[in-house]
Structure formats: structure tokens, C-alpha cells
Design brief:
The protein is α/β, with parallel strands linked by helices. It has one domain: Alpha-Beta Complex (Maf protein). Helices cover about 25% and strands about 25% of the residues. It has four helices and seven strands, in the order βαββαββαβαβ. It has helices at about 25-40, 70-80, 115-125, 160-170; strands at about 10, 50-60, 60-65, 85-95, 100-110, 145-150, 185. Strands 1, 2, 3, 4, 5, 6 and 7 form a seven-stranded mixed β-sheet that branches. Strand 2 (about 50-60) and strand 3 (about 60-65) form a beta hairpin. Helix 2 crosses helix 3 (about 115-125). The radius of gyration is 17 Å and the shape is globular. About 35% of the residues are buried.
């Protein structure tokens, strides 16, 4: 949000992020991004709220935030030499009207063949315990990849700014001059 230069406030939605039985990665990120946005409606009754969530999917298994060093090591070992799909859900909600736009950005990441020592070094140095897939692409995590295929490079960071810019404009929040006067955005 800072990159877009819009005034905003942050809100912790404190929602349960546990996947539902049989829920796909796409269904999960759409549900969680919407629920995160909806959670702010009571405290921000006249705002445009942005909710986002991200998961990785490896061989049909959802990769959430590992939470522990052991979990991060296991996720990266499993991803070594494989392609992992990262899904970033976005929901932009006008709390005054209840109108919302939802979308999913897809990034395909081909991981390098990673030795256990390289994985351990990475996890120790960057501590990616709160990141879906156990890496921080905006940091040293980029060294784990052989190739990345995506439409929006910011989606892999967790907030797809290209699609967000389009959604904000839909609700009258222009990022660049010549648009509508700014309203408060909540993330």
C-alpha cells in the first residue's frame, strides 16, 4: 500500500485461517481474503478495505505458513527441484455498500535443486516462518528459484498491486492524478 502512495490504516482481522475439508487452494485464498476484508466492516463502516491471503500448492497439497523452523525445512525440502503454484487471493470491499471484487493471482515457481545445507542456511538467515511456502521473495528467498512465471511480480510478495490498482480505481480510489478524490483504504 505504501508503494501506491495512498493513505491507509492496518487492521488485524484475527480470523481462523484453517482450510475447510476438501477446500482447494483457490477457494481458500478467496474465502480468507473476503473474510479478512469483511472483518473490518464494523470498525470501518465507510471505507474501502483490502483483504489478501496467500498459499502455496505443491502436488495438490496446500503449503501454509510453516510456523516453526522444522516446518520451513520440510516445506523447502519438499519443494526442491519442483514447481510450486502460489495463489494470492485479493478482496476489495466497499464497507458502505457491501460491494466487493475478488480475484486470485497465480504464480508458478520452479525451485532449484536445493541441498539440505543450503535449505538450513536459508532458513537460519531469513527465518521465513510466517511466509506461505517458507520463503521471502523480496529477500534472499529469490536465490531458491530457478524460474518464476507470473503476471504481477508483487503477487508473490503477498499483495498483487497491479490487480489492486484496478480494483481501487473501480471503487473511486485513483493511484495516480486525474482520478477521484481519495477515500480511506484499510488493509
Amino acid at each position: 500500500m505504501r508503494r501506491l502512495g495512498l493513505p491507509f490504516a492496518q487492521f488485524n482481522p484475527a480470523i481462523d485461517e484453517t482450510p475447510l475439508d476438501g477446500e482447494s487452494g483457490e477457494e481458500l485464498v478467496l474465502r480468507l481474503s473476503y473474510n479478512k476484508a469483511l472483518a473490518a466492516q464494523k470498525d470501518y463502516p465507510n471505507a474501502v478495505v483490502v483483504g489478501s491471503d496467500q498459499v502455496g500448492v505443491l502436488d495438490g497439497t496446500i503449503l501454509n505458513k510453516p510456523g516453526t523452523t522444522r516446518g520451513a525445512l520440510e516445506q523447502l525440502r519438499a519443494a526442491s527441484g519442483k514447481e510450486v503454484e502460489f495463489l494470492t487471493g485479493l478482496c476489495v470491499l466497499d464497507t458502505a455498500t457491501g460491494t466487493h471484487l475478488k480475484s486470485v493471482d497465480v504464480c508458478r515457481v520452479l525451485f532449484r535443486n536445493l541441498a539440505d545445507a543450503a535449505i538450513a542456511d536459508y532458513v537460519e538467515r531469513e527465518q521465513p516462518l510466517d511466509c506461505a511456502g517458507s520463503f521471502k521473495v523480496e529477500g534472499l528467498g529469490i536465490s531458491l528459484f530457478r524460474r518464476v512465471l507470473m503476471d504481477d511480480p508483487t503477487a508473490l510478495e503477498g499483495l498483487p498491486l497491479i490487480r489492486l490498482t484496478d480494483s481501487l480505481q473501480h471503487f473511486g480510489l485513483a493511484v495516480l492524478a486525474g482520478g477521484h478524490p481519495p477515500r480511506q483504504a484499510i488493509q
